[in-house]
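Example record

The entry below shows one chain as it appears in the dataset: sequence first, then structure tokens.
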Amino acid sequence: MRLSAEEKRARREIKAWQREGAPWAARAFDWAMQPVDWAAQQAAGPEGIDRAEAAVSDFLARLSDASEWTYEEEDLLEKARARGLEAENVADLRHHALDELDALARSFFNQNTLLAALEGGSTGLGGAALIAADVPLLFTIGFRLIQQIGRAYGFPMRGPDARPLVLSVFNVAASGRTEAKAHALREVSAAASSFASGQPYRGRVTGTFESQNRHLPREIAKNLVGRKLGQTIPVAGAAVGAGVNYWFTRQTAEAAFMLFRALYLDWKERK
């Protein structure tokens, strides 16, 4: 199916996003966090960093079934209907205009970033003792946000088969690198082909979930852990926890927004 002028403009935006590195806001945050990163790494030492990375990596590699995640289909459909987007199920939303779906998807940004910041600030008060609780909560908020944005474009992200694309979103959020974006867009292309043909999406690479994604949990952990260790710094822990969680959740929202727009456009072109 041919794309409209608005959809072609969105395609150009996605291509520009793919080519660019981390956005200026993320680069500014990186610069501001450098002293905190250094202090946290000195305090934790190489062994502490390795243990923290291993814990995050293990948590991501053992993602629970997506049916246990935290957002129900009917909640999103009610929000869509309140915006005049009639749909009996999530897949029906694919047949609405992209700009309407963009607005629906963006409506989930602020509530999740605020929730993540509040959670990070609260657990940051407990220093190292509460980091173990903070990381699962942060990713649970991220899972919920990815579900909401994916469904806003008509693509339910339920079940183990959704994990390759979900991990790709997190990898883009954690690193912002062009290589991560290219990998994620290849996953998007595979997912679009599956949805367009009516086949279940199972990721680009055949085999087990571990063989498909063995590098991604460690990559995500490597890019996030230094920041989370800043929560161990006395007094500053709450502020660091809130800031890091806000930054990561905002990056997750932006990555999911671009990638699910791309999925919508790829699916439409294949129909």
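Notes for this example: DSSP finds eleven helices and no strands in the chain. Confidence is low (pLDDT under 50) at residues 206-213.
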